[in-house]
Amino acid sequence: MRLAELSERSGVPLATIKYYLREGLLPPGERISATQARYGEEHLRRLGLARALIQVGRVPVATAREVLRAVDDESLDLSRRLGTAVSSLPPVVREEKAEPVSTSAQQRARELLTALGWEDPHPNDPSHLSLVSAITALESLGYPCEVAHLLPYGRLASELATSDMDLMAEFEGTTRLEAAVALTVLYEPVLLSLRRLAHAREADSRYREPEGG
Amino acid sequence: MRLAELSERSGVPLATIKYYLREGLLPPGERISATQARYGEEHLRRLGLARALIQVGRVPVATAREVLRAVDDESLDLSRRLGTAVSSLPPVVREEKAEPVSTSAQQRARELLTALGWEDPHPNDPSHLSLVSAITALESLGYPCEVAHLLPYGRLASELATSDMDLMAEFEGTTRLEAAVALTVLYEPVLLSLRRLAHAREADSRYREPEGG
Lengths: 213, 213
Description:
Two copies of one chain form a homodimer. By secondary structure, chain A is mainly alpha-helical. The first copy, chain A, has nine helices and two strands, in the order ααββααααααα. The first copy, chain A, has a two-stranded antiparallel ribbon with strand order 1-2. In chain A, helix 4 (61-72) runs antiparallel to helix 5 (78-88), helix 4 (61-72) crosses helix 9 and helix 6 crosses helix 8 (147-168). Chain A is elongated.
């Protein structure tokens, strides 16, 4: 398809597509004349992923390029490409906002992973750092964050990862990686929205006083 | 305690405490002379909550004031105070980033809540809007978001809400509300970090090729 059709089918404005092409978020099309190129289904998919990262995941353009580079890196196996792509995403807790992590939070995070039967993550893994920094905040405010409190979160995360990976298995090769990255990013707001709705519902059923009662 | 001790015990700089007092995030202390006031444990706790909102939850100061006002509004019952406080938090998906929601995403969100046995939320509930907008993004990119895919997320959110509310029940009255708001905000990064770690782990166990193999 031509650029105009790619824009129409994806719903992404022409100027944005040209910008993504210049920034290397989208591979160049197949040249068919001095001024025209042809684009395929893989461009349509990649465009969708770039938009998911940038618009929904709030990922800066330079970061999106890193993530997509990892997705395309055929020198690595699927697991390493996914790991690199996900760890290139903006961290859950931004570093400049995080307090210095405490030793006891590091200790708790380690105990949590042991209790879950998970391997030790790389000490610089951004998700691990976000976890430790969230535990540090809970500790310093005196809120409950014993391993026993954190464990249900870990168990549920594990169940979600299994069902997510089952979904991803329906896609093949690079497409599977694109789906994995998109689902990581796009299901985060689904999860948080549902948790807030569930909180409101649970609070209602426990603490709502009858109207005019 | 005096202002200096409040600063020392909370680890919050004096200038920040004075700013919070001016902005109404912290109630004034009890005046003991023309230039001095005394602060209590409730100030220490409230200061912790304000910091959790602003530093970890990335909540703007004006929004934090709204949230804390809802926590303190004794004209409402606990359930409504919590509901108002949580819906005053910045939404999971920021409106300016969200695409216009689709009718089919609204339909799916409704079916999901029915399948979960949850009541219809208020159509302007910010968490519900975030959910619909996340489903719109998944749909428009052609990623799986059938009710069957969303349901495990809803079930797990429900389990988390139950265990969260059990935790909160250990606190009394306004303190319980403070804990509820803090745990809503502070456990979000815990949950997302653990999900990303679980993804990496699950991908490893499914797709990692042996080194040098």
